[in-house]
Design goal:
Layout (H helix, E strand, L loop, with lengths): L1 H30 L4 H30 L1
Helix pairs in contact: 1-2
């Protein structure tokens, strides 16, 4: 049961980190003068990139940690 809790906590942490990175990218884009649709596209791309990076890191470390 503790392994499941640890996995869910790690997933939640990655999602929160991805949301924070997306918000930061959106704010920086908006400060740079981007329109709202462009800002949302940059924030969405950043969110997807962070989740993809986390998935790649998890896939890479799985054989080492098991």
């Amino acid at each position: 049961m503790t392994h499941l809790a640890l996995i869910l906590l790690a997933i939640a942490l990655v999602v929160v980190f991805a949301l924070l990175a997306a918000v930061a990218a959106g704010v920086l884009a908006r400060l740079d003068g981007a329109t709202y649709p462009a800002t949302l596209m940059r924030a969405g791309a950043t969110f997807a990139a962070v989740l993809t990076l986390a998935a790649v890191v998890a896939q890479t470390l799985t054989p080492v940690l098991t």
